Amino acid sequence: MSLLTVVQDVCAVVGVEIPTSVFTNISNTRTMQEMLALANEMAQRIAYDTREWTKLKLQLVLPGNGTQTQFAMPANYKRMLLTASVWRSTSTQQPMRFVADTDEWLQRRAAVEYDAWGEWTLLGDYMEIYPAMGVGVSARFPYLDRNCVVLNAGGNGERFVNDADRFRLDERLLKLGMIWQWKAQKGSPYAEDMGTFGDALQIAMGSDKPQPILVDRAPISAWNARVAYPYPVPS
To answer: How far apart are alpha carbons 4 and 2 in whole angstroms?
Structure first.
């Protein structure tokens, strides 16, 4: 379902003229300006503020060369996952320590102190890792992709720029979200529409990532297992 199809469905429900294009003559069409702004806002809200969708999760592997301690984050980096750790290839049982306080990070570097499994922090657009990883050693971590739109021109982007662009997640969620938010912005009753959106969102979230099982033949969430029971789970 393209952006144009979503906007056409929204317009049919909220009672505004159904367009043949969102972008054609948009500078002179206030309604399409509002629809485009709403589509971009709702797409980003669903993609980033509701959950960490599996479709938007990626991993980055940083290779060591013996001297480098500063690594640029990728262009599509949105943020670390909420429970993400950075794993050094030489320490598979214990992740590197995250130093959240910048002053503590600088103090530890000045004192040449570090934990045995390594440390990391975020400064600007870079990840700092100390001590430097040797040749053949790497660090890996998961992160959230900032690009929630499939661009008709190719690749992914943060915003819709063409009628044929598509939302990377469930386009029905985008449509339902736009309907209730449009009505709310225009002062129309929207509680039922917001409830419909909320129900659809909960179903999509539940099917996106089933809950882990502690003891069974199914896999377990490694993070939850490590916190609750830091040894191999018996089968």
So the answer is: 5
